[in-house]
């Protein structure tokens, strides 16, 4: 697989996920954009956006260490694993924002943050071993 195709797919998925995350939030029926609930949801969205941007940036940085234009299956599927978890961000973000007192929603939210970072560490080790 050509490296540029993986990078394009990764960029596209991150763009869609970042967009879907904000589209999941609804304007309150009373129109009050400064209510505590709306401000909390905005804070959760900003946190999610920054996390996604950081993951994208780190993934891009790790990919720069691949000197060849060809990507092997292990790197391809490791990247896909990270993208799979990234695609869960809109769901876990909205679940956490709408159910702030739910332990399950909070665990899903935190897990969605942690798993990509752990996966990035493993991914970078895979790439570094191939250098």
UniProtKB/TrEMBL annotation:
Keyword Transmembrane in annotation: yes
Superkingdom of the organism of origin: Bacteria
One GO MF term: proton channel activity
Protein biosynthesis among keywords: no
Catalyzed reactions per annotation: K(+)(in) = K(+)(out)
A Pfam family it matches: TMEM175
Family: Belongs to the TMEM175 family.
Record's protein name: Integral membrane protein
Native organism: Lactococcus lactis subsp. lactis
């Amino acid at each position: 697989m050509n490296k540029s195709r993986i990078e394009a797919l990764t960029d596209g998925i991150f763009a869609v996920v970042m967009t879907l995350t904000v589209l999941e939030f609804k304007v309150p029926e009373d129109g009050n954009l400064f209510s505590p609930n709306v401000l909390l949801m905005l804070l959760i969205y900003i946190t999610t956006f920054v996390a996604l941007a950081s993951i994208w940036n780190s993934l891009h940085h790790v990919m720069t260490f691949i000197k060849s234009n060809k990507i092997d299956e292990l790197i391809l599927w490791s990247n896909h694993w990270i993208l799979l978890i990234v695609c869960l961000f809109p769901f876990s973000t909205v679940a956490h924002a709408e159910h702030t007192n739910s332990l399950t929603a909070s665990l899903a939210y935190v897990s969605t943050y942690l798993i990509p970072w752990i996966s990035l560490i493993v991914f970078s080790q895979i790439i570094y071993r191939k250098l």
